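Quick one:
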Amino acid sequence: MADFDWLRMLIPAVFYLGCIYLLLGWIPENTES
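Output:
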């Protein structure tokens, strides 16, 4: 089951990076308009 240790770390990391990506993509559009 040790193979799933990286998966437990990867899922929150991908979710966290996804949130940052959406924020960085949304803020410029909001500040320009």
